[in-house]
Amino acid sequence: MKKAKKVIIAILIIVVIILAIVFGVKAIIDQKTGQLQEIQTTGWDSMFSEFEVQKQDVTTYVKGNGEITSFDIKKIPVESYESVADLYVSDGEKVDAKQRLMKVTSPGSSRTVKAPIAGMFFAVEENGSNQYMVYNLEEVGVKIQVAETDVVNIKEGQKAIVKISSIGKEVEGVVDYVSNLPQNGKFTVRIKLEYMEDVRFGYSAHVSIVTSEKNDTVVVPYKAVTKTEDGRYYVYKAEVKQDLINQFTSGTDVPEEKRTYVEVGEINSNQVEILSGLEVGEKIVYSNW
């Protein structure tokens, strides 16, 4: 009898141990699952940014790429039957107007060639022969090509920021010419610069022409504003964040009545000016995608 009781007690102990193990494992799984769910929620949540509406300065640009050049390049004619007997200046040397550049000879004659303008002398090989020219250093700048949708916002006298990446330099220039006739669908715009000793002709340059500047105006991030097919603009306020998460996770569309329609002003690649529809201090939400 005592032996039977011991067997029963042993069995009960084993059952208790098994149950403890089972429930312990379940608790661990539940805990892990909860962590995963929390991480997943945090993951979706992090896909959105909140922004407090505030006043900032807004600058709008038209951008383009070109290279450093002179707008006034005088070619020095040397005929095919002539040859350069003496060259009095070096390639890349600064010269004065009417300074002697070279002596040119032909069968039975010779002549002295002088600089037509002050500037920088260059000898460039083209098609197997040397071409000689003088770059006017008073007319240095960059030419860019812009689309018709951009040229309407560009005027002579506007400020431009010119970045010369090869030497890590950023300088200010001014628009001095806007073409009225397109070439290959683009309009030529010239940005004039001061001559700089450390900038070589031919360096690549990125140009940002300032077409509008507004100070202390209500702005929001460019990503926060959506344009409808009929040309209206809207944002989502912060309380709509969960609806946006649901849209990503389950495909449920955000109801149209939760949109906040706004009137916009200046728009650039980073900011949108808000003329009406939002107040300073309100919070909006937008996708980071």
Q: Could you describe the 3D structure shown?
A:
The protein has 289 residues and is of the alpha+beta class. The protein has four domains: 1-31; 48-57 and 216-287, conserved putative lor/sdh protein from methanococcus maripaludis s2 fold, CATH 2.40.420.20; 62-69 and 138-213, Elongation Factor Tu (Ef-tu), domain 3 (Beta Barrel), CATH 2.40.30.170; 73-135, Beta Barrel (OB fold (Dihydrolipoamide Acetyltransferase, E2P)), CATH 2.40.50.100. The protein contains three helices and 19 strands. The strands form three sheets. It has a six-stranded antiparallel beta barrel with strand order 2-10-13-12-11-14. The protein has a four-stranded antiparallel sheet with strand order 3-9-8-5, with no helix packed on it. It is elongated, with a radius of gyration of 36 Å. The protein starts with a helix and ends with a strand. The relative contact order is 0.17. Mean pLDDT is 86; it is low at 25-42.
Q: SSE order in H/E notation? A: HEEEEEEEEEEHEEEEEEHEEE
Terminal CA distance reads 75 Å
CATH topology grouping of the largest domain: Elongation Factor Tu (Ef-tu), domain 3
Poorly predicted ranges? 25-42
Under CATH, the homologous superfamily of the largest domain reads Efflux pump adaptor protein, beta barrel domain
CATH architecture of the largest domain: Beta Barrel
Quick structural summary:
This protein has 289 residues and is an alpha+beta fold.
Helix and strand topology:
Layout lengths: L1 H44 L2 E5 L1 E17 L2 E4 L6 E5 L6 E2 L4 E7 L2 E6 L4 E8 L2 E7 L4 E7 L1 H4 L7 E6 L4 E10 L8 E6 L11 E18 L4 E2 L5 E5 L3 H10 L9 E8 L3 E6 L6 E5 L2
Antiparallel strand pairs: 1-19, 2-10, 2-14, 3-9, 4-6, 5-8, 6-7, 8-9, 10-13, 11-12, 11-14, 12-13, 14-18, 15-16, 16-17, 16-19, 17-18
